[in-house]
Amino acid sequence: MGAAGNGPSPRGGENTTALLVLEDGRIFRGEAYGATGATFGEAVFTTGMTGYQETLTDPSYHRQIVLQTAPQIGNTGWNTEDDESSSIQVAGYVVRDPARRPSNWRSTGSLEDALRGQRVVGVAGIDTRAAVRHLRERGAMRAGIFSGDALAPDDELVEQVRRSPQMEGADLYGAVTTGESYVVPAAGERRFVVAALDVGIKFNTPRMMAARGIEVHVLPASSTIETIESLRPDGFFLANGPGDPATADGPVALTRQVLERRIPLFGICFGNQLLGRALGRSTYKLRYGHRGINIPVVEHATGRVAITSQNHGFAVAGEAGEEFDTPYGRAQITHTCPNDGCVEGMAGIDFPAFSVQYHPEAAAGPHDAADLFDRFVQLMTDNPVGYAGVAGQRPAGVEPAPYPDPEELPDGDPAAPSATPAAPSAAAAPSAPAAPATQAAPSAPEPDAPPATGSSATAAPAGTAPGGAPSGAASVGSASSAAAAGSAPSAAGAGSSASGAAPAMTAQPSPSAPPSATAAPSVDLYPAAPPASSGAAPIAPHSPEEPRPAGDAGAGTRPGPAAGPDAADHTTRLPVSPAAASAEPGGPAGEPETSRMPAVGRPGTPDPLTAPFSDIEDALRRESGLPGHPAAAGDPGAAADPRAHQGAADPVTGRSGPVDDRPWPPPATDPTDEQARPGQEDH
């Protein structure tokens, strides 16, 4: 399990050492990043070059120490729109080169501030390539990050890691499930109702379904089949989640009951493993898992290859295209990963269910698999068993029955839940003839129908509520619980019951609106030329910012329009701080100390748009009086004595000295290990 950090990462003259300790004795030394202290978890790596905020808040990463293979992390900072859960879920975080300053118009803070604020212990500056290769060769393993007061002799730290629990056999979905049910209303007309079992659901999943007219009831992992039947759903959804699927006996038993009632089912990631177990398949632990946003998957029926987002360390046993018998009819392995043959999807041939091992809702992309939600809609259309199916088959002119809430059922009456789905079950038998009638239902909305009680009629309250659901979700609850919580009377619903037959469902924010709905106004990429201002900072002659005549493209600059008193300057410029007055009369304009960009008009300064990174880094170091790279040793702007600046922070990396990435203790050479290279360091 992960231990909370003791405080913010130290800076200045304090000790900034942090260690990543693996259970096999390998130790990587770096600097503290985020909070300081000790944390434990399974060390895994993810290959995504973007979407680190979605990764950190993904509940599937619960109790894992995540290592980013991309070298630069944190460039876009942290915002309030991209979270996939109510908090950061990882046990620890490992990066190579964290950004010192975020740069993005949506950013509300830095990544390190977010880690520090949520007491997530991290380490930066280690050789992540060596660490990833070590995990690939030896598999994901237990690990710990230690910094600050948690530092101790190496052998003691290794022993602490070995005493931490393993991921195999870990029962973790209960730690990330919602404590109370909540509802994400459909965007527009409600076409279907889906019961989603939260074993680690991400915010974007109900958002994707809501965009397709699905009202999503997100239920705790401990929900019963009676609760699901009382909702009279058109479909059942199994979410992603953390831990070993072999320990999830409760959700597996519930999945079997759903399959017995032939309720259309869709599962992703952990849900694919739950469906596999419900169908009689076994699961196993992968060596180092699939984690990233560029993993290919082959759909065998069509030969189509989708690039997918994945995050799983367990898989379902099976072979590509394999058909097998289940208690509910024939089923088939439909998708596999061409990299290693891992099962990536399955579907029922004789019953309405399918699942995939990857993430079609991936908020950071890719979106190749987003059409799976449309397939789920089609599956519910072809197999009408819920409220939408009954409404589509009722005689013309007959109003549908009010949509029930769990609280409307008589307290202690076991027959009431089973009586509710009786009509849908009867209607589900002739599924093929009923499909056209159900398909026509969405095209004939009923604006005059009485409003549904409870969840479907509840207004979307503002704010964030327990359970961490996203902003805007409707709530379901009894009148007494609504009054106790100080809710508006309208939130209770006309059909609410004070008997307390089911737990009260408190107000939760909803993810029905996509992040772009709350984004700031877009930026015009081709604005009109601004009017001339007498207070503008002067542009130094022959600088990269000076407009040049047509056809005169100086070195390091791009050609601009013809210069003249009436010529409009449309030169694309970086957002550089206004130049301050020069200290020397007639000299070039200086730049404020707060800017990292070299002074634009200074002679010999490389153009930040076209110059190599090494030249820009050397310019930054020269401004701080530090030497550049070895090739610039003869540069007159370099410091005469490099030893005079050993305590100063490098303006490019932000570090005050080299980071020790040497392996310690040295890994023992295994003569049976074909990949071991005696006499060579793992760098």
From TrEMBL:
L-glutamine binds at residues 60, 241, 243, 270, 273, 311, 313-314. This is Carbamoyl phosphate synthase small chain. Belongs to the CarA family. GO terms for biological process: 'de novo' pyrimidine nucleobase biosynthetic process; 'de novo' UMP biosynthetic process; glutamine metabolic process; L-arginine biosynthetic process. It catalyses: hydrogencarbonate + L-glutamine + 2 ATP + H2O = carbamoyl phosphate + L-glutamate + 2 ADP + phosphate + 2 H(+); L-glutamine + H2O = L-glutamate + NH4(+). Residues 414-443, 451-464, 471-522, 531-542, 550-566, 577-592, 625-641 have a biased composition (Low complexity). SMART domains: CPSase_sm_chain. Small subunit of the glutamine-dependent carbamoyl phosphate synthetase (CPSase). CPSase catalyzes the formation of carbamoyl phosphate from the ammonia moiety of glutamine, carbonate, and phosphate donated by ATP, constituting the first step of 2 biosynthetic pathways, one leading to arginine and/or urea and the other to pyrimidine nucleotides. The small subunit (glutamine amidotransferase) binds and cleaves glutamine to supply the large subunit with the substrate ammonia. The active site is at 269 (nucleophile), 359, 361. Residues 1-190 are annotated as: CPSase. Its EC number is 6.3.5.5.
